[in-house]
Amino acid sequence: MIGRMDLKSKDVIIDELDFSTMPGTNTAVLHAKYVKVPLRNAYQPDGPWEFCLTNHSRNYLDLKRTYLVFTFDITDTAGNFVKMDSKLLETSLSYAPINNIASSILKTITLHINSQLVYSNSTNHAYKSYFENLLNYSQNIKDSTLSAAGFFHDTAVEEFSSLGYQKRCEMVYNNKPVQVAANISIDLMNQSRVLLNSCNASLTVYPNHSDFLIEGRNLGDKKLKLNVRDVYALVHEYELTDGITNELEAALIEHKLVQYPMISTQVRSFYIGPNRLDAPANTIFTSKMPRRIFLGLVSAEAYNGSQTTSPFNFKPYGLKNVHIDYCGKTIPGRPLELDFENNKFIEAYVQMQEAMGHSRNNSTCNSISAEMFKEKGFTIFGFELSPVALDSSLFELVIQTNVSIRLDFKEKTPEYGLYCVVAAEFDSLVGFDQLRNPLLDAVAH
């Protein structure tokens, strides 16, 4: 007997038997091209580096395909090359740019459109980009596509034997310039809609200092310097047909607004002094509830820049409890009972992977194992505050609240203290009126 699982189930013809359906035809885009954008101001090693990405072009800018391209080398402070042992022995001198170097070079970024500020970050852009690349992508992506940005998958941070560290040593081993490129990871450029034509988009960048950007072993009293020799932007433009351009302009005049929904990632950090058993009370965000929060602890020495450490070495530091307070609620609902030395951490690891949507998923992962989370420099905690945190196609209801981070330790914090780096995601909206004036959503972060 043949029957349907349910009467509401409709008849379907599989694609292999469908001879009537044809692909659609592109009638909107005439041409697409990459354009090299040089510095608008005179080059200064310490910045600022300014770019005019559009220059009032009649073309439409494909924001997601905007890159900064750097050429750099590493020398001593006198400009001389420092030779490494060809075998990269553990006992010999070695050095490398820190992971994700193309994005880590960037300290602060501002974006102005038609002279109005639409994006400005704290000084933690390197952490924002590192969290995105580390947590979202698998090892295959990190070792292929992201290698253009100088990202190589580490199995252990600050360990000489890590293949990622050794590959980054090889980048600078031959005393030749290294070229890397990274997407500009800011809110408006992380969404898929193109930027309207006749906008003047100006990008201003300040770089991090060399102590933050270099990770070395057995350096002794040597001081190294990362020298950016050249920097330019690559933008991708669409030239549309006159018909679609006119229709878009007419729609803008009629509706008086075009909008760009997006996820805005805000990064904050706070200091935890030495010899403490808890973190000071810290209200990190004071406006609306985030969708997700990720946080990790790094030594104050590495956070402020030290050529013998990595700023991305996130450790437990004797943490016994971490939770988020907001709207009179606590996430998680009960305190995490952490004891890394006695292998009580798996709940935190599972929550981090669940917050990324990687658990029980055979199509994507971030290649962070439980062991790496425990003791290899990848102790990053993840919390879902929104019930639709993983669905970026939905807005969450706007809830006005303060968000606080609570941390308790079973042993005193180190002598020089710690920094807690916090990345939170918010729903955001940017609009443009018919005069191309940007309009930001009223609820600030």
Describe this structure in words.
With 445 residues, the chain is of the alpha+beta class. The chain has a single domain (29-440), classed as Alpha-Beta Complex (Hexon Major Viral Coat Protein, domain 3). Helices cover 16% and strands 33% of the residues. It contains 9 helices and 19 strands. It has helices spanning 101-104, 125-136, 139-142, 163-172, 210-213, 242-255, 300-304, 346-356, 370-375; strands spanning 29-37, 49-52, 60-76, 94-97, 106-113, 116-120, 178-183, 201-207, 214-217, 224-240, 258-272, 282-285, 292-299, 319-326, 329-331, 380-384, 403-409, 418-432, 438-440. Strands 11, 13, 16, 18 and 19 form a 5-stranded antiparallel beta sheet that branches. It has a 4-stranded antiparallel beta sheet with strand order 1-10-3-7. The radius of gyration is 24 Å and the shape is globular. It starts with 28 loop residues before the first strand and ends in a 5-residue tail after the last strand. 36% of the residues are buried.
Q: Kindly state the number of beta strands.
A: 19
Q: List segments where confidence is low: pLDDT < 50 over at least 5 consecutive residues.
A: none
What percent strand?
25-35%
What structural category do the secondary elements indicate? alpha+beta
Q: Mind telling me the CATH superfamily name?
A: Hexon Major Viral Coat Protein, domain 3
- Please give the largest β-sheet: 5 strands, antiparallel
Overall tally of domains: 1
Instruction: Give the rounded overall mean pLDDT.
Output: 91
Kindly identify the CATH topology: Hexon Major Viral Coat Protein, domain 3
> What is the share of helical residues?
10-25%
Q: Give the N-to-C terminal Cα separation.
A: 61 Å
Bulk shape: globular
| The level-1 CATH class | Alpha Beta
* H-E string: EEEEHEEHHHEEHEEHEEEHEEHHEEEE
Instruction: Please name the CATH architecture.
Output: Alpha-Beta Complex
